[in-house]
Design brief:
The structure holds two protein chains of two kinds. Chain A is α/β, with parallel strands linked by helices. Helix content of chain A is 35%, strand content 25%. In chain A, a hairpin with a 3-residue loop joins strand 5 (89-93) and strand 6 (97-98). In chain A, helix 4 (125-135) packs parallel to helix 6 (172-184). The longest helix of chain A is centred in the C-terminal third of the chain and has 18 residues, at 202-219. In chain B, 34% of the residues lie in helices and 21% in strands. Classes of the chains: A alpha/beta, B alpha/beta. Chain A binds chain B through residues 55, 61-62, 171-174, 201-207, 209-210, 213, 228-232, 234-238, 254-255, 258, 268-283, and chain B through 43-44, 181-183, 185-186, 208-215, 238-241, 246-261, 263-269, 271-272.
């Protein structure tokens, strides 16, 4: 149901979160035309929670507010109202605002859509992976740091020599593996994946989705997975929330939501998803 | 027997470099009949957009056609695509914003296109422009609006109207819906398909999405690293793909009806080779689960809709 079920074992709890953007004309133009201030409600009273070790997918089309929610959860954007709690601790509420807490930040990481713009082109991969370790002061010994970088590369299916190379030497899928390794570097418990495969080819998308699922099992990670693709969401999510114009129109466990969607918008999204009844789908 | 609308035979494209020539397309052959929708599918670097660009005569220098021929209604057009581009062959690209002039109204752009190609007078052209907008589902009253006043899906409808304005025999649509939301994508593809069928115009639809291929095309051509690996009627290829790459591509595409959170997607290991380091033999062999010794030495000939030694061997055994 749209209100969102509060679970006892919830790792992330988002309650009544809203975000408005001012889309007024510039001051002078308003003065001349007599126009009023205008507001766009990007996220409207959204509540949901994610169980520990599970994946919650937010699905919706452009402008639905899914990326704004993701950015508010990791603290890149400030909600106007509502509360966000991680593991029982407050990350945002209206009274305290955004809670500045490094031990909390360390547990949250994000993997962005574009593997081209989210990696610093002037840094070697080893330095990119070292940065979160340094920033959170996780490992003091330089040798142990290097070992950790190698371990991270290994975890995402890259080789230890790749630490010496620059991002442009890698393909899109390999770069997304680097982004994932960087997200893992601070030993997070929670990762926001914002359309992590929408810039990738299908065969590479399958590799990255499988990698994310394997890491979730191995490291007991909790994911918020943002996507516009119902089929990708079906592969990844335990629970799904469907967003339209900033509102959750439907949310449920993945199976029932896909098999018997209640909201007309959910049904429309599913009917629009191109599909094929292939003889080789079993591989 | 009449010639097909479009016939491409042994089309090769190369990019000369200082030390070597990169072979981007290797002897691509296919035909297209009037009113038919042919899909080109493959991953980045497969050569699908390049095939479209070669037909249109829009290869970026230093890329050039080094072999083969392209004929439209029996007339050779390779090397003289200027004479047919826009008029007899229309184009639709991924991003509608870059295909439209931001400084002129959509009506002006339609009228200009109609006058240029069909030689109508201004009044008749304006009338025709209104009809075209009706056909693509845009209110005729918005003929005086600028491209920025439309949403992405509406802009792509305008681009379709522009491409159809000169009544072309062939439309080449290169990822026309990749920038659009899924709900809009379905509408735009259905519109493109319907309008072309009504006019008897053929379509080459370039996409990376097997689902789009399945729902929109009559026939499909699967490309890998500059070579055609499989062609056939879409329904047959989807029901029983033969080339391991086609199989891999389909299996890796999540199917809403079949997958769940417990699914491990079958993946194709590795990635598309770069043109500068193409493997010998079959170009897919380093990623192929069914690789045989012969695949590492020689490329399989394209026989009966597929280029794969697995099927050559069967034929030999049977014969």
């Amino acid at each position: 149901m749209p209100g969102g079920v509060m679970m006892d074992n919830a790792y992330l709890q988002v309650s009544g979160v809203s975000r408005h953007f001012d889309i007024s004309d510039p001051f002078l133009a308003r003065l001349l035309t007599g126009g009023a201030r205008r507001q766009l409600t990007a996220v409207d009273n959204v509540s949901f929670s994610i169980a520990r070790g599970q994946t919650y997918a937010l699905v919706g089309e452009s402008g639905s507010g899914k990326s704004t929610i993701a950015r508010m959860i990791v603290g890149l954007e400030r909600p106007d109202s509502g509360t966000i709690r991680f593991d029982g601790r407050t990350a945002f509420d209206e009274r305290q605002g955004q809670v500045q807490d490094n031990s909390l930040r360390q547990k949250l990481q994000m993997v962005f859509q574009s593997p081209y713009s989210s990696l610093n082109p002037r840094w070697r991969v080893g330095d990119i992976l070292m940065e979160p370790i340094r920033a959170f002061d996780l490992i003091a010994d330089p040798e142990a740091r290097r070992r950790r970088v190698h371990e991270l590369l290994d975890q995402v299916g890259l080789s230890t020599q790749d630490a010496q190379r620059y991002p442009h030497e890698f393909s899109g899928g390999q770069r997304q593996r680097i982004s994932i390794a960087r997200a893992l570097a601070s030993n997070p418990q929670f990762i926001v994946c914002d359309e992590p495969t929408s810039a990738l080819d299908v065969s590479v998308q399958a590799q990255v989705l499988n990698l994310l699922k394997q890491l979730q099992r191995d490291l007991q990670l909790t994911y918020l997975f943002i996507s516009h693709d119902m089929a990708v969401v079906r592969v990844m999510a335990h629970r799904i929330g469907v967003l339209k114009n900033g509102r959750l129109v439907e949310e449920n466990a993945a199976g029932p939501l896909i098999e018997s969607p209640q909201d007309p918008y959910t049904r429309m999204l599913m009917e629009s998803t191109p599909r094929f009844a292939g003889g080789a789908a079993s591989g | 027997m009449t010639a097909p609308l479009l016939e491409v035979s042994d089309l090769s494209v190369e990019f000369p470099q200082r030390r070597q020539r990169l072979q981007a397309l290797d002897r691509i052959s296919f035909t297209l009949e009037a009113g038919e929708v042919l899909g080109f599918v493959g991953e980045s670097g497969a050569g699908k957009s390049l095939t479209g660009a070669a037909i249109m005569g829009l290869l970026e220098p230093p890329g050039r056609i080094t072999g083969g021929r392209i004929t439209l209604q029996g007339q050779r057009i390779d090397g003289q695509a200027e004479s047919v581009r826009g008029r007899r062959i229309g184009m639709i690209f991924q991003d509608p914003l870059t295909s439209l002039n931001p400084l002129r109204t959509v009506g002006d752009q339609l009228v200009e296109t109609i006058q240029l190609h069909l030689g109508m007078d201004a009044g008749a052209a304006a009338q025709r422009a209104g009809e075209l907008l009706d056909e693509v589902g845009i209110d005729r009253g918005r003929i005086g609006a600028y491209p920025h006043e439309f949403s992405g899906g509406m802009r792509q409808r305008i681009v379709i109207a522009l491409a159809l304005a000169p009544e072309p025999e062939l439309i080449i649509a290169d990822e026309p819906t990749t920038a659009l939301d899924v709900s809009i994508q379905a509408q735009v593809l259905a519109l493109l398909r319907r309008l072309c069928k009504e006019r008897g115009a053929a379509v080459i639809l370039i996409t990376h999405d097997m689902g789009v291929i399945a729902e929109t095309t009559d026939r499909v051509a699967v490309l890998y690293a500059g070579r055609l690996v499989e062609t056939g009627r879409t329904a047959e290829v989807i029901a029983a793909p033969r080339h391991p790459y086609t199989k891999g591509l389909m299996a890796a595409t999540p199917n809403l009806d079949l997958v769940s959170v417990d699914t491990v997607l079958p993946q194709i290991p590795g990635s598309m080779p770069s043109l500068a380091a193409l493997p010998l033999g079959c170009r897919f062999h380093p990623r192929c689960g069914d690789v045989m010794p012969v695949c590492r030495r020689t490329a399989a000939p394209f026989i009966d809709g597929v280029a794969c030694h697995l099927y050559g061997a069967q034929t030999q055994e049977a014969g």
